[in-house]
Design goal:
Rossmann fold; 211 residues; 9 helices; globular; 7-stranded mixed beta sheet; 7 strands
């Protein structure tokens, strides 16, 4: 994992103001989020970038959209011909659109309820920052370890997970990399698009299961 990039976001994001995603996404906020065309476009664009990083070797893959929200990424992936499973722990997200074709699963992405070695890929857009945002928080660290071990377990050999997220600063990002190195068998790297432009900066975590 590359640990030589400095940034620190001064503006407080929702995950810093609310303890849990479910506290922030009340029915009004959830509805506004799900109806937002700009958020939909942004998430589809980040999903397209995640697909570039995944470098899928076949056209019809089984993909997990972890922390799917209203399903922007999952719907787009299905339109491309992939079979997608949309997972989120906020039940109202899974009810907002008619996403029965996305096999919606109500579950915590840190504790996925799937068998081993079934997914060709995992994509997660704008969710990881809710799971790990405080370096000294033991519960968050435990949940993060569980997430990466779970992802490793459900991925097929020679498959990848790509996670786009918004860390507060490089220290949080570096700690995530350290936890991955010390507690999982993933190999991986951070990919930072537009690193010197805070408004356009996008951070992706690319993880590969080699065996």
């Amino acid at each position: 994992m590359n640990d030589n990039y400095f940034f620190n976001i001064k503006r407080k994001r929702p995950e810093e103001l609310y303890e849990k995603a479910s506290d922030y996404f009340d029915l009004e906020t959830l509805s506004n989020y799900a109806k937002s065309k700009s958020i939909m476009r942004a998430q589809i664009k980040m999903t397209q970038r995640a697909l570039e990083i995944l470098e899928l070797q076949k056209n019809h893959c089984l993909i997990l959209d972890a922390g799917c929200g209203p399903g922007f990424a999952a719907i787009y992936l299905n339109q491309l011909g992939h079979k997608t499973i949309a997972l989120d722990f906020i039940s109202d997200f899974l009810k907002f659109f008619d996403i029965k074709d996305l096999n919606p699963i109500l579950a915590d992405m840190s504790y996925t309820p799937f068998q081993s070695k079934i997914f060709d890929a995992i994509i997660s857009i704008s969710a990881l920052q809710w799971i790990f945002k405080e370096i000294g928080n033991k519960i968050m660290r435990s949940n993060l370890i569980s997430l990466f071990r779970s992802f490793y377990n459900i991925l097929k050999p020679n498959s990848k997970a790509v996670i786009q997220f918004y860390p507060k600063n490089n220290v949080v990002m570096e700690n995530i990399g350290k936890i991955i190195r010390e507690t999982t068998q993933f190999s991986g790297t951070f990919i930072i698009d537009n690193p010197n432009n805070p408004k356009k900066r996008k951070i992706f975590l690319a993880l590969e299961k080699k065996i």
